[in-house]
UniProtKB/TrEMBL annotation:
It comes from the Bacteria. It comes from Cognatiyoonia koreensis. This is Transferrin-binding protein B C-lobe/N-lobe beta barrel domain-containing protein. The lineage of its organism: Bacteria, Pseudomonadati, Pseudomonadota, Alphaproteobacteria, Rhodobacterales. PROSITE patterns: PROKAR_LIPOPROTEIN. Transmembrane segments: none annotated.
């Protein structure tokens, strides 16, 4: 399949690898290292996978685990990388989840969590999902409230991978809102 038919996968792959790479390979804790390593592994799997048609998705429900990252649209790199867990109900075409266990780009623990809610997906050849994204995280520039949306899709022979591209506003008390972009890649 050509690049032009897989833009969501390509953007997710590039975004997640770039976010993980921003942390460098310094002496951060093993937890950051394991999340960074998992991000790279999942991004490579996603890069090799084709989109999953609706007819090939499993039935019932499934829990997907993986990684979630956000980077702020600021003059200097500022972001968080953490764990993600998304529950998918294939009977009702819905999904929801949570991201937490964040680390900032200096590989320091960062408090907060982000909720993925009201997710619905539909499609034929390529499944597209939309969800709300909200919560807060402690960035290097301070605690920010996250409010945005996600566009998601499935990949692999039977939808064993799910990826979402997120974007919106990150606000901080007493400061102007800044935009953010992010991505999740999770696997069944």
């Amino acid at each position: 399949m050509t690049f032009s038919t897989r833009p969501h996968h390509f953007v997710a792959f590039v975004s997640l690898v770039a976010l993980a790479a921003c942390g460098g390979s310094g002496s951060g804790g093993s937890s950051f290292s394991s999340i960074e390593s998992r991000a790279e592994t999942l991004a490579q799997k996603l890069d090799r996978a084709d989109p999953t048609p609706m007819a090939d998705l499993p039935s019932g429900s499934s829990t997907y685990d993986g990684v979630f990252g956000i980077i702020l649209d600021t003059d200097r790199p500022d972001g968080v990388l953490g764990d993600a867990r998304i529950d998918v109900n294939f009977r009702s075409n819905t999904f929801s989840g949570k991201a937490d266990n964040f680390y900032n780009l200096s590989q320091q623990r960062a408090s907060g969590s982000v909720t993925i809610s009201d997710g619905r997906f539909d499609g034929d050849e390529e499944v597209i999902g939309i969800a709300e994204v909200s919560g807060s995280a402690q960035f290097e520039s301070g605690r920010r409230t996250i409010d945005g949306i996600a566009v998601a899709t499935f990949a692999g022979d039977d939808g064993e991978l799910m990826t979402g591209i997120v974007g919106g506003d990150a606000t901080r008390s007493g400061a102007s809102a800044v935009g953010f972009e992010g991505v999740w890649i999770v696997e069944d």
